[in-house]
Design brief:
- The structure is a single chain.
- This protein is mainly beta and about 325 residues long.
- Helix content is about 10%, strand content about 40%.
- It has helices spanning about 5-10, 40-55, 60-70, 105-110; strands at about 1-5, 80-90, 95, 110, 115, 130-135, 135-140, 150-165, 175, 175-185, 190-200, 215-220, 235-245, 250-265, 280-290, 295, 300-305, 320-325, 330-335.
Length: about 325
């Protein structure tokens, strides 16, 4: 039985900074630093923080999540628990680099009628002021995020996931289970890895997590479950929990929010990130996401905090997130008897 992420974060991630004064938009869990003209202006930073807070207060799942908070006797999955194993034994992986995501009008609407804007910027919504506009339509994000068309292929990619989806809904406790390990290697021979989940997110913040593990569901895009910067995608298995990031076997960052999901294929020619109408339902791949966001359980919101990945970008800065995609998968799943 897993304990809720709220209890974990309160115990080992406090104290935390308030969103007020941050002056940051985290597009799709990416890094959007405050503009230079407001960097030294407390009034402008405070106004930005107020705007972000208003967006966070408008998340569409707020009422639903409130109904499930603290529930100690959640119902199980209809038909019984599903146990799944997903592995990759080697080969290449695609590592996303910061990029300006092109905006699908089916997901984001238009400047006259915007969609998908409420919630922590990037984590569950994208505010209109963060979107480029041309000829009366949204174009792409103004700042880079983990979701776009830039990537790097790394070798020796391996992953092992064992998950049980037993609890149907968000709750204060869960019978869902996850054991996850993944690693990959850069051209210099450094090995990077992520392990999860010491604690599952049994109750979501801003959108549901279904006890920490969910199977056979629609996520992202227009679903408003997760960032809309990913396409709307059928998800065979997904999890949310707290884990750790390693480099060459040494823990470099913990605890970190970790999200993994096995989905239909959402890349197209040139490995460009698809719009909804370009999703390929006949192929599957696995996404690992360690976002530069920190849960604030007392507020049911998120705050920006870069991941210590240990991987340097061409400009010398550290990659502030991990978004890694695995495609050579062995997948097994069955109902528990």
């Amino acid at each position: 039985m897993a304990v809720s992420m709220n209890h974990l974060v309160k115990g080992i991630m406090a104290p935390v900074l308030a969103v007020a004064g941050a002056g940051i938009l985290a597009a799709g869990c990416g890094t959007m630093q405050a503009e230079a003209d407001s960097a030294g202006n407390p009034d402008k930073r405070a106004k930005k923080a107020q705007k972000i807070q208003k967006l966070q207060e408008k998340v569409p799942y707020d009422g639903y999540l409130e109904a499930h908070k603290g529930e100690q006797n959640p119902l199980g999955l209809l038909g019984g628990p599903i146990e799944a194993k997903v592995t990759q034994g080697g080969g290449g992986v695609f590592v996303a680099l910061p990029a300006k995501r092109e905006l699908d009008p089916r997901v984001f609407g238009s400047p006259k009628m915007p969609r998908a804007f409420a919630g922590t910027p990037g984590m569950s919504g994208v505010p209109p002021m963060a979107r480029g506009v041309s000829d009366g339509q949204y174009t792409r994000m103004k700042k880079p995020s983990p979701f776009g068309n830039k990537y790097k292929v790394m070798q020796r990619g391996s992953m092992s996931l064992r998950a049980v989806d037993a609890t149907a809904t968000d709750a204060g406790r869960t019978d869902d289970e996850v054991r996850f390990r993944a690693s990959w290697e850069d051209s210099a021979g450094n090995t990077y890895s992520v392990r999860c989940c010491r604690m599952l997110a049994s109750h979501g913040m801003e959108y549901p997590t279904f006890g920490g593990v969910v199977t056979n569901h629609i996520l992202h895009g227009s679903s408003r479950i997760g960032t809309p910067l990913m396409p709307t995608e059928y998800t065979y298995l997904a999890f949310w929990g707290m884990g750790e990031v390693r480099k060459n076997g040494e823990v470099v960052d913990k605890p970190r929010l970790v999200h993994g999901m096995l989905t239909e294929y959402v890349r197209k020619e040139g490995y460009k990130l698809a719009f909804d109408h370009e999703v390929n339902p006949t192929k599957r791949h696995f996404h690992l996401m360690v976002p530069p966001m920190k849960p604030l359980p007392d507020q049911d919101q998120y705050e920006h905090k870069n991941v210590k990945t240990g991987f340097s970008l061409p400009n010398g800065k550290e990659l502030p997130f991990w978004h890694v995609m695995f495609g050579s998968l062995d997948i097994q799943a069955q109902r528990r008897g």
